[in-house]
Design a protein that fits this description.
The chain has about 210 residues and is mostly helical. The chain is built from six helices and six strands. The protein has one domain.
């Protein structure tokens, strides 16, 4: 799983599709809809926010907008509805709202469960149309997530390595932006000084 801090416009077609699929998987993890990848380091900065699911929705919207600009069709309804980034326009066909199902409303534990065994966590479910119609409009905004300059530089080097193999024509822009310290970032993030993020698993073959 790779959730790029860099702007998705740097990605080639294969990379953009992979970013979309991996971010959708991350959305499922943060929504409690799957047990895999829960401790993946790429999720650390999302989990550290006050609203991880809202942050991931904003991340997915950034990828979706880039895909739409290229004429690709990514299913916007897969993105969980949430508060927007400051100045961000709502998608024309936003996906479902998600509501947390109280444990008391979840299915009873199987009769074979051991006494005192922890019950499975309640999972969110998609809100029905009446529930969405009655929902109060969300006027909050998603706060930007800080990303260190060293992390951006490392990701640019990593992506350059990948693009040289898959899409050499896209390398020159990324290399120029890295060289001139003008890397563009995903709109969810804001750049701060510092080195590579502590959660990054640095490759030694670049």
């Amino acid at each position: 799983m790779r959730l790029w801090s860099l702007h998705p416009s740097y990605l080639d077609a294969k990379g953009l599709v992979a970013a979309w699929r991996e971010a959708l998987l991350a959305q499922k993890v943060l929504a409690g809809a799957t047990h895999g990848y829960r401790q993946h380091p790429q999720l650390v900065r999302f989990r550290d926010t006050d609203e991880p699911r809202a942050a991931m929705s904003a991340f997915l919207r950034g990828i979706h907008r880039e895909a739409t600009a290229r004429g690709y069709t990514f299913d916007v309804e897969k993105i969980i509805r949430g508060p927007l980034l400051a100045g961000e326009a709502e998608l024309t066909e936003p996906g479902p709202d998600w509501i947390d199902v109280p444990e008391s409303a979840s299915s009873p534990a199987p009769a074979t469960a051991a006494v005192g065994e922890d019950a499975a966590p309640a999972r969110p479910r998609a809100a029905s149309a009446p529930e969405r119609a009655q929902a109060t409009p969300d006027t909050r905004t998603v706060p930007l997530i800080p990303v260190r300059q060293g992390q951006l530089d490392y990701e640019a080097e990593l992506l350059t390595f990948k693009l040289r193999l898959r899409a050499p024509k896209l390398v020159s822009r990324l290399e120029a932006d890295l060289r001139n310290a003008r890397l563009e970032i995903h709109p969810l993030f804001t750049t701060v000084p510092g080195g590579i993020e502590p959660w990054e698993k640095v490759r030694d073959d670049l």
